[in-house]
Design brief:
This is Tyrosine-type recombinase/integrase. By secondary structure, the protein is mostly helical. It folds into two domains: 33-138; 154-349, Orthogonal Bundle (hpI Integrase, Chain A). Helix content is 51%, strand content 2%. It has a three-stranded antiparallel sheet. The protein starts with 32 loop residues before the first helix and ends in a 7-residue tail after the last helix.
């Protein structure tokens, strides 16, 4: 994979800052080491309630940890008596009830990551034992049944970048404008994923004020988390061309900062009322697969996530530090950056012709 140009400004990222609060929060009576060791299910539910997560995510995590607590009780164990092998045994275990099957796939990794965070929190409460979640993660516990993420090969990446470049040039040479707005939009769509690593959920809500083509970054930071995606060089032109076409169609004077960057395919055309203006996640996946197929990229997991993975690979090949990966990808911790490096290293080690 061709390295990305890493000659960029030293002010590449903003530093994380704790959220300012006007009042001291009430103490959590359940958040003590004693509570975690004796009633871990109650302590976890109380602790999770204060995390910045969606309500649906909290519901899923609470149910997952509840199953883990049931296993702990059945084994007669406490959190402070566990090791990495215990986590492996839990993930490989199957209960007697039909629904209590051995954990598989992504959920196994979610368990390991949640336990890693739990034990990090226990350490802050005074626990002096090992973070068995971190140890399990280092030993790749929970990954045995998961298919590794796919990265585009160097040839595939070059083919896709070439498609973006040549298609954009052809549209300009043919004098295509508003009548080819879908083509311009889709080129920018793929450019933002491959060249800035945005997730689909970021794309569908992306607004004009998030993009800074002077600094060549996309600003998605929020309180407590820096996410300033660096736009790689090849992606700038497709994004710029699409934004210019949007100004032409809507009128530059109507370039509202909160105007959606990626709009849906509306048969009524621009300027008409429509019930659905924002591009949906399913549409993003369909349009992405279409351009991948045009570039000759097919097979398992030829999708939007693959483009984000490949962006990671381009950054790593370009010499990005862990701190840069954290900020460019909006990660929460250095352990996530290290996992991405390990995943990319395994992908590069695969025999030629094998997709990762």
């Amino acid at each position: 994979m061709e390295p990305a140009d890493t000659a960029h400004r030293t002010t590449y990222a903003i530093k994380r800052q704790s959220t300012q609060r006007d009042a001291t929060p009430a103490p959590d009576l359940f958040d003590s080491l004693e509570r975690w060791l004796n009633t871990p299910d109650l302590a976890y539910a109380s602790w999770l309630n204060h995390q910045r997560l969606r309500a649906s995510t909290k519901t899923v995590y609470t149910a997952m940890f509840g199953r883990f607590c049931q296993w702990l009780q059945a084994q007669g164990r406490r959190l402070d008596t566990l090791d990495a092998d215990d986590i492996r045994r839990f993930l490989d275990s199957a209960g007697s009830a039909p629904r209590q099957r051995a954990q598989r796939g992504r959920q196994r990794q979610q368990y390991v990551r949640q336990l890693e965070r739990v034990f990090a929190h226990l350490g802050a409460l005074g626990y002096r034992g090992d973070n068995v979640g971190s140890l399990a993660g280092a030993e790749q516990v929970g990954q045995g049944d998961d298919q590794p993420g796919r990265f585009l090969s160097a040839a595939e990446c070059e083919a896709l970048i070439a498609l973006l470049t040549t298609t954009l040039a052809d549209l300009a040479q043919e004098g295509k404008g508003a009548e080819a707005w879908i083509e311009y939009r889709d080129l920018a769509l793929v450019a933002v994923m491959l060249g800035a690593g945005l997730k689909v959920r970021d794309l569908v809500g992306l607004t004009l004020n998030c993009i800074d083509l002077v600094e060549e970054r996309i600003e998605l930071s929020r309180p407590g988390c820096a996410h300033r995606a660096r736009i790689l060089g090849f992606a700038v032109a497709p994004i710029r061309a699409w934004l210019a076409l949007q100004d032409q169609i809507h009128g530059a004077a109507d370039a509202s900062p909160v105007r959606k960057v990626f709009e849906a395919d509306r048969s009524a055309g621009f300027g008409r009322l429509s019930k659905k203006v924002t591009l949906s996640a399913s549409s993003v996946h369909r349009r992405t697969q279409k351009l991948l197929e045009e570039a000759g990229i097919t097979g398992e997991r030829a999708c939007a996530q693959t483009l984000r993975n490949t962006y990671v690979g381009l950054l790593i090949d370009g010499g990005a530090t862990d701190e840069q990966l954290i900020d460019y990808l909006g990660l929460q911790a250095s352990i996530s950056a290290q996992r991405l490096r390990a995943s990319f290293a395994r992908a590069k080690a695969l025999p030629a012709g094998r997709h990762c």
